[in-house]
Structure formats: structure tokens, C-alpha cells
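Office hours follow-up: a student asked to see two folded examples consecutively, so here they are.
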Amino acid sequence: MSSTNTEIPLQGYDEEQIRLMEERLILVNESDQNVGSDTKKNCHLITSQNEGRLHRAFSVFIFDSQNRLLLQQRAEEKITFPNYFTNTCCSHPLSFPAEIDEANQLGVKRAAIRKLEHELGITKDQIPIDNIKYLTRILYKSPSDSKWIEHEMDYILLVKADVTLNINPNEIKSFRYVTPAELDTLFKDAEATSTKPGSEKILITPWFRLIYNNFLLDWWKNIDNIHSISQDDTIHNMIK
């Protein structure tokens, strides 16, 4: 899997999303040790030398007082995985001191608070940092298309809160709250449309699928007592 295009293939994409590709992400090794930084663009670009660069990321799951999970559908403007359904918020800590901070996953949690406001308009006062529960990390790699790939050390964060939303349409096409049964239906519908010629595909991000298949339902059963869910310091390597 490689790109023969020696130019950075950003022509034709959304101007704001191109700008965000210049953010500097935290490069890590497979033990999650910080080994430097690079642009978001270079971290996700498929070249003849690299299928992206391994970088730190996070996935937030917000549950409301009815124990429903907040999902988003990524905007058409997104460069990787446009129009895909995924968990509440997925992004990256940036390479500056406040978000590099590894003590109690504070850097990742600060980044999550920043991006929840940027994408969903959830203001900082709605999500105190102590209310963010870190659970585990997954290491995965998945191409979006022939140009772009995700190669991430993904921190999984849970929040139980009722929040007020102000959606950024450049980031999110749609959103919904779902019960476990409704999410199961969404996954089944995605599977059905993937093999049905001519049907409109329901797309689900690969990291969300991995988390759903391996962890999410067990966590969901205990969401009323979120801080009782055990932290798992294992890095779950899901690269096949």
C-alpha cells in the first residue's frame, strides 16, 4: 500500500481541514513512549516509505443520564473517514506541554476537553477533568483510502454526563443518542449494506468497531458506576 504521488495530496479538500493537517501530533513507539512530533498530515499520509506514523490519539464515549451513548457521523469535509459513524469524539493530543503530560493521562484528557468543545460545542464547565475516566489503550492501523491512514495509540475515555451541544458542521454531519440495542442495529445495518449492491452504505470507523467488538458492551453494563470500572494499563495490539 503506497502513494506514488510525490506532492502532498491535499488539493481539493476542505480549507479548514487542510489547516488542521498542520497541527503537530505526538509520535510514540509501540510501548507508547514519546519519540517526537510530526504534522497531522505526515502522521496520516501513505507514502512509499511509511503507512502513516504511529501517534497518540483518544476516543471519548459520553453517556447521558439515560445511559445512552452519544454518537457522531463525521462530516463530509473530513479528510479521513468522511461520513463514517463513530463514538462521541475522536482526535489527538497535540505536541505541547499541557497535552504531552502523561501523569494520570492528564494531557490526553485536556485534549479531549478541547476537542469536545471544538467539535460538539460541549463547554469546558460541562466536563470537569476529574469526571473523565481513562480505561485502556488500543494500538491499531487502518487505511481510509489509498492516500490516508490511521496508525494510532488510542486512549479510551468514558464520561457520564448530560451535555448541551452546539455542533460544528465542519466536523460533524449528524449525531444521535443510542441504547445498546440501537447500536447493535446500526452495526447490523452497516454489515447488511456493505454486501447489498446499490444500497446506501452505512459506514462505521474501524477503531469504533474494534472497541465495540472487544470492550464497549461490558463497560456499558457498569456505566451507572463509571469509576468502578477497572483501569487496564495493557496496550491492546490490534494490528493484524
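And the second, which I mentioned at the end of office hours:
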Amino acid sequence: MTDAATAAGLDPATLADVLRLAGSTGFDRIQEQIRRTGGCTDPIRLQGSTVTRDAGTGHVLHSYSTADEPGGFLRVACGNRRASRCPSCAWTYAGDTYHLIRAGLIGDPTKGTPETIRDHPRVFATLTAPSFGPVHNRPGKRSCRCGTRHAEDAPELGTPLDPDEYDYAGAVLWNNHASELWRYFTIYLRREIARGAGLTQKAARELSRVSFGKVAEYQKRGAVHFHAVIRFDGPDGPLSPPPAWATLRLLDDSIRAAAARVAVDVPAVDDQPARRLQWGTQLDVQPIGAFGNGEEITEQAVASYVAKYATKAAETTGTVDRRIGNKEALILLDVPDHPARLIAACLDLHALYPDRKLRDWAHMLGFRGHFSSKSRSYSTTLGALRQVRADYRAAQQRAALGLPDPDDAEGTTLTLAHWSYAGHGHTPGESWLAANVRRDLQHQREQARDIRAELEVTDTMGEW
């Protein structure tokens, strides 16, 4: 068994379980369930049944029970957005985020935004944290302050030049209050727009709206920063054009003025001094080009960038994606020195600021906000996108079973369902099968991307 496992690249326990599954009567159905979840790494197991009846006659049109499934349960995707937890579900989440952001940039009538949205002033803004001490970096063509020209993947990038002098407490407290800084920023932004337009805040709200979609990203130093698409709309949101005074210049100036005004005060406690938390000076605001005619920032680039970081979190800095209860765990988990110090600072500060829940969010380096969010009128919602996908799959299933459309007045049906949670996860053999499914899907996506790229090149050459 050991020699066979080694030849297959599997440990003996996994190989034994793969052989058990392959010899079971429900192997094909197990594979089908795993494929339907996209190779989810930690699927939810459900037990239950559904019965579809004709609402008029009560005749049973279709019935399903997990009692007939291998193991007596049904696997459904976990839906986790973190790529470190489930690459398959994170890929779906990133795709939904891409379409959400894209719909607010180019318009999509099916998602509630007209194509005229492209004519609205909009920018891609990046708001960063202030400095908590000098760190190793790559300042253009110059050497780092340490005298070394670091490679792009150098492990010391983002780490302090002098860890003993770095303000770790200030860094995690800033992360912890970052969502409040953003909330105040959106408030001050509307005020600055009214001031710049020479209007009262009430008059400005009656004539225009400001919509946004944002995502949080961790810098190498462990500080959170926000990327946001910010757009001017008319009084009816994306359905109406903004007034003439709602210019790109006014939006740019208002963003910079609002960011400069924001401040959150943290009181002094014991040995911790009072702090005034503010945005850093590295504020970047760039207009978004509609068709990529020489603009540095295009709609496609923005949507892709936001979607990319919607599935990442603090683990990109070297920490872990699960809660850490004590400092001893940092050694067991082999967390690098810089993120370990940030986590330790969270654990130390928890008793001083219990309402901030720093211990619960230590693995996130103090940050406790949403990684992606949007204003109500920016575009569609993630929930709506998921519902469209669920409806599409339900329609496919009904067609395969020969069931009538529930919206058809002549074929009204009634479905009764009962489901209960029965656990989660895979056996070792199922995990191996899921990994193969993910690998195959990734290969198919790469092939499809290469084909699209070739077709684009062919089209371009045809135009010549």
C-alpha cells in the first residue's frame, strides 16, 4: 500500500480512501456531486427532501430525498470568498464581484444600470494608511533606505527597518478603525461636493447622488487600504444624468478635501497615548476611461483589479486565515515576525479596548470591516447575481425533469422542502477528487482565456 501511494503521489490513508470510494456503488454519484460544487474544498452536507406537486390536482410531479444519496446527504458549495480557504468558491465570488463592479462602470440594463452610465464622471480612488515607521520598499529605480535594491518578491519588503521602533499598536488600531474612517469619508465627501458646487447639502442631494463600490486590500506592511470606484449620478441615481456642475474636477477635489478632513480619536488608556487616526498622505485619484483610449485606468482594468482582491485578506501578509487565541499559537503556526508582532499587539491591546474586539480579529491584524461593499444605487447586488445563477440552474433542472415552469399559469406547481445541516467537509479520498476537479476546471479556464486572446488578435489583424 505504501509503495502504491508513493507512486500515485498520495499518502496511504488518502489512497486507501480513494480505493474505497472507487469500489463503492455510489462512486459515480459522489463524483457528480463534487463536480457540481466545482471541487469545493469544504462543502456543506445537507439532509432532507423535496416534493413537487401539481397545485391543482395534488399529483406528485417529482420527489427527491437524500436518503437515496451515497452517505445519505447532499453536498453543496461552501460559498467562502477566501481563496486561501476554497479556491473554487472564491473564483465564483470574484466573478460576481467583477460583474457587480463592471455593471456600475459600463452599464447593464439586466442589472439595473443603463449604458449611459459611461457618461457619468467616475474615478478610481485609493485611500491608504499613514506611516507607522519606515519599512523596506522598492522606491522606483532607487535603493531602499537600507541601501539594498530589493527584488520584487523579496521577503523583507513591507517589514520595518527597525521593528523595535515600529508603532505596532498604532498600526492595528488604525486597521481596527478603518471602516469608521471610510464611513466618515463618505459623509464628508457629500459635504465637500455641496460646498464645491456652492449649494446647501439638501440642494446637492436633491440634484445629484454619489455612488461607490469599494474593496479592501492589505499592503505588505499589514496596513489596510481601500480601492473605490466613485461615481456622480443624477437625482434618480444611475438612471438619470448628473447635473452640469457635477464634473470630474469637482469629484476629484471633493475626494481629496474629504479625505483630509476625516479623523477618528482614540482615547488614552494606561500606557497607550491618545491617538488621532487619519488617512495617509498617499491618496491616489484617477479618472476611469470609458473605452481605454489612452487612459491609464480603464473599466476592464478596474473591474478585474477589484475582483482580484475581493477574495484575499490578511493571509497575503504572512498571517493565517483563522482566529488566533494566544501568542503561543504564533510559534506553532510559524507566522513570520512582522505579522506575528501585529497579531501580538492585537492580543495585548484587547484588554485595554475590549469594545474593539481586537482579540477576535487578531488574525486580520485588527481589521473587522467588510472587504467589499457598495452604495445602494451603485449597481446590482451579490445576492441578486447569486439568485440569477440559482434560477438558471433551477430552470435547467426543471427542463431535465420535464417539470412545468412555476411562472406558467397553466402549470402552477407547489414545492415542499425540508433541509437540515448534516456537517461539512470531505473524506481524504473525496478531497483528492475535489482537487482534481479544481485542477481540470482551472485548465479549462486557461484554455478558454487563450482562445479568446487569439480571437482578439485575429480580429485586430482582420481590421488591418
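Two things to take away from it. The longest helix spans residues 428-463. The chain has a mean pLDDT of 88.
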